[in-house]
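Ops channel
N.P.: pipeline sanity check, posting one input/output pair.
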């Protein structure tokens, strides 16, 4: 299967473009307080990232309809996540804890998986290991997009400016990273024995839940005290994901039995 190397310039260009659009929407009151501006600043950067990740699957690209269905279902998952997380918060007596952050992480990753499953994983278009990663990332970006729309729309009430890049940009990277890790956990196990498949799956789930839980903890407990460290960790994970993409693309193409 043909493959290509990581394009650092392209990655940087996409990141900068998404960042510029985000800050334009968030720091211009006329935009951030208007729903169209919030939608622009929340969804357009996510579409930039979606385009970037789609370049990783050029050999056997998925139908755009399926990709955007996963993106849309990821957006639909946000209201359900809010309801469930509010219930979990109430059940904990309003007290933030590591267990609560873990429960939130499991909730969001599960809902994003359902979006990816309904759109693509359960269909005939899931016919090679990389596909599950693409569906998971598409769903994750949809989730991040609507979450960011809501965040921008309420950004005028923020008083701690240092939390803006941490919450907005960091959360976008987080959703992609955590969902991709689960996707790799599923994808690398395809065609292996049940024992090996379970090892890959639990590794992906553990890495995803641990990263998501740690991010929420450091966001909400330390209030940005470890801002640089969190960003460095997220970018290291993104680099790891790019390397894993190069590996999973080398798995021979085949039609999976159904």
């Amino acid at each position: 299967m043909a493959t290509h190397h990581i394009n650092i310039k392209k990655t940087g260009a996409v990141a900068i473009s998404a960042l510029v659009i985000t800050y334009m929407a968030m720091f211009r009151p006329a935009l951030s307080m208007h729903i169209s501006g919030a939608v622009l600043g929340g969804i357009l950067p996510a579409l930039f990232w979606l385009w970037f990740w789609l370049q990783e699957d050029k050999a056997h690209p998925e139908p755009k309809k399926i990709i955007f269905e996963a993106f849309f279902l990821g957006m639909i998952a946000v209201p359900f996540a809010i309801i469930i997380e509010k219930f979990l918060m109430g059940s904990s007596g309003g007290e933030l804890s590591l267990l609560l952050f873990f429960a939130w992480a499991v909730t969001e990753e599960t809902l994003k998986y359902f979006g990816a499953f309904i759109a693509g994983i359960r269909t005939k278009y899931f016919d090679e290991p990389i596909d599950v990663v693409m569906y998971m990332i598409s769903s994750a970006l949809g989730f991040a997009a609507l979450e960011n729309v809501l965040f921008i729309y309420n950004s005028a009430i923020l008083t701690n400016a240092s939390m803006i890049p941490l919450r907005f940009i960091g959360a976008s990277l987080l959703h992609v990273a955590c969902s991709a890790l689960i996707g790799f956990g599923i994808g690398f196990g395809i065609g292996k024995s049940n024992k090996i498949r379970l090892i890959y799956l639990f590794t992906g789930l553990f890495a995803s839940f641990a990263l998501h839980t740690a991010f929420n903890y450091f966001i909400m407990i330390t209030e940005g005290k470890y801002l640089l460290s969190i960003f460095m960790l997220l970018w290291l994970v993104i680099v790891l994901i790019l390397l894993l993409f190069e590996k999973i693309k080398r798995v021979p193409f085949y039609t999976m039995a159904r």
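N.P.: looks fine end to end. Residues 8-248 form one domain.
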